[in-house]
Task: inverse folding
C-alpha cells in the first residue's frame, strides 16, 4: 500500500494526536492477531470489512449482514471458530459500530456467543469508541481516516505486504 507523502495531518500535536495514537495502537494489535493467528473480526457490513482491509487487515473478517438470521450466523461462527482456551485468547473480536444500533448488536452478539462458551474480545471497539467518537461512530469511516491512522498503526506493526 502506498501513502501520499504530501498529505498533511490535521491532527496537530494536541488531544487528537493522542487519541489517534491510542486508536492506532489498538488497531495494530488487532491487525497482528488477525494476520498471524487468523483471529477473526466480526463487523456489521461489507463497507466495514473494506475499511479494515484498507487499514491492512489480511486475516478473516466476517460480516454480520449477509442475509442470514442471527441464529444461523452464531452457529456458523461457533462451527468455524469455536471457543478457544484462555491460553489462546478470545475466539473472535466483535467490532460493531459505536452508535445506538451497533451497541444493541454488540450486546446481543455478546449474550448469544458467550451463552455458547465462545469467548469474545470487545477491547478494540472500546478503544475506538473512546478515541474516535468525536470524528466518527461507525467502522466504515475508518477508511476515510487511513492517512491519519496508518502512521500510528505502522508504528506498532511495521508489517509490509509484498
Result:
Amino acid at each position: 500500500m502506498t501513502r501520499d507523502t504530501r498529505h498533511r495531518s490535521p491532527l496537530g500535536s494536541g488531544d487528537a494526536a493522542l487519541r489517534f495514537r491510542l486508536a492506532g495502537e489498538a488497531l495494530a494489535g488487532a491487525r497482528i492477531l488477525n494476520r498471524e493467528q487468523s483471529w477473526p473480526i466480526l463487523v456489521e457490513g461489507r463497507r466495514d470489512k473494506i475499511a479494515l482491509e484498507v487499514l491492512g487487515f489480511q486475516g478473516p473478517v466476517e460480516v454480520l449482514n449477509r442475509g442470514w438470521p442471527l441464529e444461523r450466523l452464531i452457529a456458523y461462527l461457533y462451527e468455524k471458530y469455536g471457543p478457544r482456551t484462555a491460553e489462546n485468547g478470545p475466539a473472535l473480536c466483535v467490532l460493531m459500530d459505536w452508535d445506538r444500533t451497533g451497541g444493541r448488536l454488540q450486546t446481543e452478539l455478546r449474550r448469544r456467543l458467550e451463552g455458547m462458551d465462545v469467548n469474545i474480545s470487545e477491547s478494540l471497539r472500546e478503544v475506538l469508541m473512546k478515541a474516535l467518537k468525536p470524528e466518527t461512530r461507525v467502522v466504515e469511516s475508518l477508511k476515510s481516516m487511513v492517512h491519519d491512522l496508518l502512521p500510528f498503526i505502522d508504528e506498532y506493526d511495521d508489517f509490509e505486504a509484498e
